[in-house]
Amino acid sequence: MHEEILKNFREFIRKKGLKYTSEREEILEEILSIHGHFDVEELYQRLRQKNKKISKPSIYRSIPLFIEAGYIQEVYRQDGHSHYEVMINKAPHLHFLCLRCGKVEEIIDPELERLIRTKEAEKGFKLLTHHLESFGICETCQKAETTTLDMVEKGKVVEVLDLPTDVMCKKLIAMGLRKGELLKVLQVCGRTILVEIGNSRIVINKELASKIPVKIVRTEKVTEDLPCELINGEEALQEPCPLKDKDDACQIKDEKGCPRNFLIKLLSKL
Ligand SMILES: [Zn+2]
Ligand SMILES: [Zn+2]
Ligand SMILES: [Zn+2]
Description:
Layout: H1 3-15, H2 22-32, E1 37-38, H3 40-49, H4 56-68, E2 72-78, E3 81-86, E4 94-98, E5 104-107, H5 110-123, E6 132-136, H6 139-144, E7 146-148, E8 156-160, H7 167-174, E9 182-188, E10 192-197, E11 200-205, H8 206-209, E12 213-219, H9 228-232, H10 259-269
Parallel strand pairs: 4-6
Antiparallel strand pairs: 1-3, 2-3, 4-5, 7-12, 8-9, 8-12, 9-10, 10-11
The structure holds zinc ion (3 copies).
One zinc ion is lined by residues 76, 131, 133.
């Protein structure tokens, strides 16, 4: 089936001054029957299923030869090992690599091939191999990053995807919360969540937060550790700031300096 290639390979081996082994050809034949991407483990398992007694070290030793001969190429590395693909009779194609889960998708499009061929002719360049990779986040991983505000952990910066039109949400809108706005979760307490939007901080109860779809954008460090009693307890609002004397921020005359004062202001607005 791959007679021509095997003949060519024998010639390649001879020119390199290496000894002929049937083992190498068996590995190559197996590789030529693989359509997608593969790694050494996969190749080893395929050979084993066919009762071919070929060791993993033999496979590892053969691969550089196949690469040199131009039969295969390394397409990407994942979990500390390489993945390869057969280059013979394969049209130039693009790889979409997901940075989250490592999934690789092949983009095969005649349009792409045509463009490459045109450029090849324009530049008077003789193309031998192709290596086209684009990195990003796949659809599944993007969906996994979409959640509701009540589920978001402290320190996450999220984008508000939508705001339901209920009364409480209208209050939030009045306080500066908008669709498309980025907010940072400063603290998560039992029934409430403290978020920062620009220079404002808002306490939102989780029931309301569960109606707000968000997308996690990044993680940031939260330097202050605001106590939940302070965020939750209305009674606490009647007492002097518990952080006074303990917290440098409270020494600042600016009202924003004391996280408690700041909270009171916002809580009273709600
Ligand atoms: Zn690569
Ligand atoms: Zn992914
Ligand atoms: Zn590929």
